[in-house]
Amino acid sequence: MKTWQNVASLYQIYPRSFQDLNGDGVGDLNGITFRLDYLSDLGVDAIWISPFFTSPMTDFGYDVADYQNVDPIFGGLDDFRMLLDEAHARRIKVMIDLVPCHTSDQHPWFVESRSSRDNPKRNWYVWRDKHNGKEPNNWRSLSGGRAWTYDETTRQYYLHSFLPTQPDLNWDNPEVRQAMQNVVRFWFDMGVDGMRVDAIWGISKDPELGDDSVNSNFYGDPDSYGAFVHDHCKHGPHFREYLHELASVCDEYDDRQMVFEFYPDEQLGDIWPQYREVIQAHPKSSTFFMEHRQNDWHGERTGWNIVNYLQACGDNLPFFCVGNHDQPRVRSRLGFERARALQFLNLLCPGVSVIYYGDEIGMENGQLTDADIRDNFSPNHTPVDSRDLERTPMQWDDTRFAGFSEVKPWLPVNKNRTFINVTEEKKNVYSILNLHRNLLQLRKDMPIFRDGSLEIIHSTGNGFILGIKRELETERAYIFINFADAPQSFFIPEDAEIIASTHSLDLIFKEKSNLTIPGYCGILLIK
Ligand code: GLC
């Protein structure tokens, strides 16, 4: 089995939408096991499975009611054990999602906690009296509305940074921290290789629960999350200490990794020290590079973001991604050609390249109507702001339900399944799927892509061309991305040889040290 020190790619699976094997329209664990050969053939070294734990599904599994069991909709613990064994047999590591900062309101801990003010679990959550007849402070929830809900039974408010059905755990209580470490041990003991740790920015809060400052640069709804600078509701005094403590559980095992979910907040200062603080909380911790979500289409700035992130990583493992289950699909954000160029770059970055399921075939946002919307985070239940867009079923083939299911799936299959699907793209040597396969193979075969240094060697002030040199011992690789829509020419080391590109070689002109590539082209050379 590989160690995390030679894992070069991670594939994120949103289990509801990957493969339905039991015919209920929702994906399941056995479906993932069934598709492991596809993942192995694609060349992925590790998978991350979004939550599959017991849950009332108000946030589709990010509202956990039992951390140590599988929700029946996804299968059972034995199905998970089988998935783990089968993945390991193919030398694929398995990372699962840990949701440590809140539970479901149906979790027995919260049921107890809300039952009376003197219940031993009362202090496992954050309860406060009314303040001047109203909420204890001005904090807003990330899923819309106030972060406080009044509970008639005990006449106090409880805190929820997300939906009212997701009460925040009180991490200042050592019993809570211990309980969460035990959850990690439960899965690590079973053989799980790593944890993606959800929404950690609120793990420590202002102990006084002071009001957040008003964001004077915000001109939208004065009641919304963005109307405030989140200087009290997150990133409290014990932030790094709690992250370190949690990740330290990795030290009790052989080869385990944690990747914290974290979005740096420009309102709270320079973003790179924030990245550094989270990534380097522990030698076995990291966080995803999230800057591509800004859609800042500029070669030079993209390059510097990558360099700054790598510096923030220090010796810790980088995780580069272009999307996830909370962001619109990269292809819909940028269009096919620009997305492909960015994906090309992402697959040639150091450390671990992360692929969100379906991005490898160029899946687009779903075509959804108001009636299709299932995500409770979408305030108006319209497709415009819904995360359902990026969660539609995986497109395996061109059949009615795209090979995802035999029955009508929980979210509609995209109509473009007729030409965007695995079966079709396997046949086309120039498909984005085969581009992923080729680059993942290179990452496996040539350690330079995972372990080599990275340096910007060419960038134009207009942001058109980004040139990167990767170096390991005597090997050198050069990556050029054309961010412009028209062909660009530039100089390359004379004896460098093209080994991969987003476009057919017929469209690329190389004469000694001069190279001309089409718009939105990515090219890889070695020397
Ligand atoms: C994270 C998850 C998101 C979820 C939220 C609350 O941001 O990625 O999907 O809704 O946490 O758990």
Describe the model.
- This protein is α/β, with parallel strands linked by helices and 527 residues long.
- Helix content is 24%, strand content 19%.
- It is built from 13 helices and 23 strands.
- Bound molecules: alpha-D-glucopyranose (GLC).
Helical fraction equals 10-25%
Query: In what range is the share of β-strand residues?
Result: 15-25%
CATH architecture of the domain at 449-526: Sandwich
Bound molecules: alpha-D-glucopyranose
Largest sheet: 8 strands, parallel, barrel
Q: What count of helical segments does DSSP give?
A: 13
CATH topology of the domain at 449-526: Immunoglobulin-like
First-residue to last-residue Cα separation: 31 Å
Catalogue the unreliable spans: none
Which structural category do the helix and sheet elements fall into? alpha/beta
CATH top-level class of the domain at 449-526: Mainly Beta
Silhouette: globular
Strand order of the largest sheet: 1-2-5-9-12-13-14-15
Number of strands: 23
As a whole number of angstroms, the C-alpha radius of gyration is: 23 Å
What's the average pLDDT?
Answer: 96
The CATH superfamily label of the domain at 449-526 reads: Golgi alpha-mannosidase II
GO biological process, one term: oligosaccharide catabolic process
GO molecular function: alpha-amylase activity
Pfam families: Alpha-amylase
Family: Belongs to the glycosyl hydrolase 13 family.
